[in-house]
Amino acid sequence: MERELCISKEAIQQRVLELAEQITSDYAGEEPILIGILNGAVFFFSDLMRAISIPTKMDFVRASSYGSRMASSGIIRMTKDIEIPIAGKPVVLVEDIVDSGLTLSYLKEKFEQRGASSLKICALIDKLERKEKDVFVDYCGFQIQEGFLVGYGLDCNEEYRYLPEIYRLK
Ligand code: IMP
Ligand code: MG
Question: If you take atom 12 of ligand 1, which residue's CA is the nearest one?
Answer without folding.
Answer: 40
